């Protein structure tokens, strides 16, 4: 297969960035890679379920932190290295959930546990508090302007404008996360990644340990996985699969009341003239014919559902596509950060919304990360997180065996079972059976897991519900892959086994998710 330089995917891993920059002597192409760095933290932010704590309280910032009540823009702006730091963010179906990835789109280059957080804080004259995490002051000010909050800008004796924001650095404690979650739900928080607000299973275990044991020595109990590690994200992706099935059930139930077979299937039949051929894929004896049919479908899919970067909803300008910005700093792009979804966006199961400030007309654009297939179809706006789930759901509506595949290195796609094997399908690249494509982008794969659920009408499965398929998407030796992982092979195997058992229990207790309506 022809090796492809990445034209759409982006990397938050420093080694991958250096690889791409060194791979080209062309300054323009290097600039494009730098722009892809910015989009790296956005492209994969739509597929893991990160739950908010049920007991959300607001606490004051610790008095021990260093504060500066009035900070100049250049002094406050997080460094490029800090801006590059990202965490996996994916989406969920709960109005009280937050996705962190990268988001699904869906990535897992994790933020170090001891990474300090840059906090900007503004207290309005009426006492209302607003905060921004790891955000430059000018972007925080734009966020406040979007909210309609007037911020008086003081000047010093040198007539140099300053920002009237408190600025301090903190380590993210449980108390601070609770404060940030409260501000988030009140729509008064801007953050560079929602991973900071996530409540992982390891957090809950650690909190339980704190309540049950007063000894601080027990806080380092090795039985508790590290925060944001493999076990945490495996659990969240499993929850995400269940959310996909719940959304699928809702669509089938709506169709049943309308005497339709499936809302998605009806939509597809109205818009894609070869839907019947897709339904008959399994009856085709010729593999070439099957792959050709899938290729035609994905080419059509990619046109129908274009990849969203940052296009302004008012004037249509795109910072990424504007040739005048190609040589500029990608960290100054139109992306401001993540904000809480509106009530309308929550109806589409959006777990977070990206906010953009157009560099041309200076208007604001919201990009809700929908988790409802119907909302994605109607909005026709998304990235690999939205489109991989939509493709997975469409394949199931067509009666095909399908899997949802999550790459811990910033991507998600689907697979279909034909001719006794699983075939790779990437809706963003219109790629069919091209397992080596990601290695051709320079990725160093760590974890790639496939998530499966029986087709509707079946209560048993002939295939693993969760399977580690990393070695099917890279030619790297297994020993090399293991060295990249933070967990041992035994720990990974045990975590997958436990997650599989929990998934089985959920499918059994919520059998309506895979039964006919």
Automatic annotation (TrEMBL):
Residues 102-111 have a biased composition (Polar residues). Residues 376-429 form the Transglutaminase-like domain. Keywords: Hydrolase. It comes from the Eukaryota. Residues 79-101 have a biased composition (Low complexity). InterPro entries: Papain-like_cys_pep_sf, Transglutaminase-like. Residues 77-111, 205-224 are annotated as: Disordered. Its EC number is 3.5.1.52. GO terms for molecular function: peptide-N4-(N-acetyl-beta-glucosaminyl)asparagine amidase activity. It is an enzyme of class 3 (hydrolase). Pfam families: Transglut_core. This is Peptide-N4-(N-acetyl-beta-glucosaminyl) asparagine amidase.
């Amino acid at each position: 297969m022809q090796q492809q330089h990445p034209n759409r995917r982006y990397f938050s891993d420093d080694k991958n960035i250096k690889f791409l920059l060194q791979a080209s002597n062309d300054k323009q192409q290097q600039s494009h890679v730098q722009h892809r760095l910015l989009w790296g933290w956005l492209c994969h932010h739509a597929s893991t379920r990160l739950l908010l704590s049920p007991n959300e309280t607001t606490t004051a910032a610790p008095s021990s932190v260093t504060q500066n009540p009035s900070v100049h823009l250049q002094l406050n702006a997080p460094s490029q290295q800090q801006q590059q730091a990202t965490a996996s963010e994916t989406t969920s179906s709960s109005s009280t959930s937050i996705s962190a990835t990268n988001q699904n789109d869906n990535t897992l280059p994790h933020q170090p546990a001891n990474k300090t957080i840059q906090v900007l804080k503004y207290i309005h004259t009426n006492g209302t508090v607003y905060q921004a995490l790891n955000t430059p002051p000018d972007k925080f000010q734009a966020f406040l302007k979007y909210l309609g909050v007037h911020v008086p800008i003081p000047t010093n004796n040198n007539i140099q404008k300053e920002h009237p924001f408190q600025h301090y650095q903190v380590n993210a404690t449980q108390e601070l996360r609770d404060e940030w979650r409260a501000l988030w739900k009140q729509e008064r928080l801007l953050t560079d990644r929602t991973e900071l607000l996530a409540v992982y299973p390891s957090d809950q275990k650690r909190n339980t340990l704190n309540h049950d044991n007063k000894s601080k020595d027990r806080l380092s109990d090795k039985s508790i996985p590290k925060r944001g590690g493999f076990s945490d994200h495996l659990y969240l992706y499993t929850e995400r699969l269940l959310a996909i099935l719940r959304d699928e059930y809702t669509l089938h139930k709506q169709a049943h009341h309308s005497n339709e077979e499936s809302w998605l299937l009806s939509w597809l039949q109205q818009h894609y003239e070869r839907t019947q051929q897709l339904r008959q894929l399994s009856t085709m004896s010729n593999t070439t014919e099957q792959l050709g049919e899938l290729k035609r479908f994905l080419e059509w899919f990619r046109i129908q559902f274009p990849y969203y970067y940052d296009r302004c909803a008012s004037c249509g300008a795109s910072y990424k596509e504007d040739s005048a910005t190609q040589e500029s700093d990608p960290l100054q792009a139109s992306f401001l950060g993540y904000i809480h979804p509106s009530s309308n966006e929550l109806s589409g199961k959006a777990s977070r919304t990206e906010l953009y400030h157009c560099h041309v007309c200076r208007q604001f654009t919201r990009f809700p990360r929908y988790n409802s297939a119907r909302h994605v179809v109607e909005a026709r706006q998304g990235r690999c997180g939205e489109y991989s789930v939509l493709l997975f759901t469409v394949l199931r509506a067509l009666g095909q065996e399908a899997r949802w595949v999550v790459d811990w290195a910033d991507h998600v796609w689907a697979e279909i079972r034909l001719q006794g094997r699983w075939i790779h399908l990437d809706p963003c690249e219109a790629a069919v059976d091209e397992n080596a494509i990601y290695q051709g982008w320079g990725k160093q794969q760590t974890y790639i897991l496939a998530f499966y659920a029986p087709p509707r009408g079946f209560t048993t499965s002939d295939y693993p519900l969760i399977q580690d398929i990393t070695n099917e998407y890279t030619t790297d030796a297994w020993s090399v892959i293991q060295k990249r992982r933070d967990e041992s092979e035994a720990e990974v195997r045990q975590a997958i086994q436990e997650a599989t058992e929990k998934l089985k229990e959920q499918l059994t207790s919520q059998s309506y998710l895979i039964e006919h309506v």
